[in-house]
Amino acid sequence: MFRKAGFYAAGGLVWALAGMALQDRPAASVIQIPRMPPPIPVAPPAVPTAAVESAREAVPPSPEPAPVGSRPLHEPATVGSRPTLPAPAPAVSRPNQPAPAAAAPRRGNASSRRNVWVGPIPTAADWAPPEGPVRIALQAGHWRADEAPAELSGLRDNGTGFQGKAEWEVNLEIAERAAKLLQGVGYVVDVLPAVVPPSYRAHLFISIHADGSRDARASGFRVAAPRNDATGRAAGAARLLEQSYADATGIKRLPTVTRRMQNYYAFNFRRYVHALHPMTIGVILETGFLTSASDRSVIVDDPDRAARGIAAAVMAFPITPPPGPAITLADVQLD
Ligand SMILES: [Zn+2]
Questions:
Q1: Mean pLDDT, consecutive 10-residue segments, the chain of 335 residues?
Q2: I want to staple 184 with a disulfide (CB 3.0 to 4.6 A). Which of 6, 290, 304, 332 is the partner?
Q3: Which CATH number fits domain 132-324: 1.10.260.40, 3.40.640.10, 3.40.630.40, 3.30.200.100?
Q4: How far away, in angstroms, is 210 Cα from ligand 1 center?
């Protein structure tokens, strides 16, 4: 059913972006984090597969089948029931934390019942922009995931890629180029690694990823808003991103999104300390398939196009209008 031939072929392909990634470090407003070497793929994963799954999903498994043939490379298939594993120890100790209101026992391990958000969850009616200038967060998916804290330990095993290129490298390249564009028109931009700061606050957060499939024909990008969006505004940002990313890249949009996108860990402030503040508008973008030659021709070989698609969505979003005078993205030079 799947053609594996060529999937693992390293080949002699020289990646056009190798070595280019960090030459143009963004301005001081970007969080400066030294680049880490990619994780060594030969080490056995420190975390059982089920823990990886649980770190990615905010809700208990449902009978809903995972899309076939379009799994991200780093996410193992979820087929049938999951093995029962011992519950990991809670990662966060908060002695004064009140008992969670919605802690009804359910299947799964103890961590699925944790609720780290203290107090009432604000609603869309409560939403207000954060203090200060318009701040945009671009997360390079899986970047520095090996540094994940215990509560997100399932993220650490993120070792897959395609033809010698790790997904995080592709994500980071696009994120940094989009950051440079946005800084060029006056935004404050944080380029974030896989682990976001606790209760991270910004006007808009975009998580940047790439898909993968055993089927080399699988192609397309997709955008998802959080399944539980307290801001009530993420769907609007997602629609703009769908439009601008399609326009800039020519990659077709896949209408289906995955539960793993909608339940992305960074959106799950109820469960993780290292998550967005509930009033941070967040979306997740799967920029294309690393395993697709046509998608790679953009996201790997021409990441500026992807970056411009992302930056254009930010500028079009009414909550994050360009802070500066009338400069357009076309006026911002990338190298
Ligand atoms: Zn990813």
A1: 38 36 38 44 38 35 36 37 37 36 39 74 93 96 94 79 90 98 95 97 97 95 97 98 98 95 96 96 97 96 98 97 78 74
A2: 332
A3: 3.40.630.40
A4: 5
**Residues counted in the chain:** 335
In angstroms, what is the span from residue 323 Cα to ligand 1's centroid?
Answer: 30
- Give the residue carrying structure tokens 């399944």: 227
Tokens 């200060």 belong to 132
3-state secondary structure string, 218-274? CCCEEEECCCCCCCCCHHHHHHHHHHHHHHHHCCCECCCCCHHHHCCHHHCCCCCCC
For 247, the token pair is 């326009």
Distance CA 139, CA 206 (A): 6
Ligand 1: distance of its center to the CA of 261 in Å?
9
Q: What is the Cα–Cα distance from 52 to 160, expressed in whole angstroms?
A: 14
Give 134 Cα–ligand 1 centroid separation in angstroms: 26
Contact 175, 191 (CB under 8 A): yes
pTM of the complete model: 0.69
Closest of 269, 229, 230 to residue 122, by C-alpha: 230
Positive or negative: CA dihedral 98, 149, 160, 108: negative
